[in-house]
Amino acid sequence: MIYDLISWLGSIYQWMIIIYILLSWVPSARDSFVGEWLGKLVEPYLAPFRRFIPPIGGMIDISPIIALIALRFAVEGLLTVVRSLIG
Fold it and tell me: Number of folded domains in the chain?
């Protein structure tokens, strides 16, 4: 049960990040209610990655990709811990 919940929440947050990134391609989308709401939930997680990973060529921001990979590692690590505790 807890295993499924952690997996589900990790997937939901991953999709929130992906949708937020896609919204950046539409200029007015981030100003919408959904864009602002996603920004409040996703930006605190993305900010440290953006601080340490500069854009390539000044334009291409790969920090969200690294953030998604880190999130996946964190979720899988947490699932491994839960699996070992449950037995």
Answer: 1
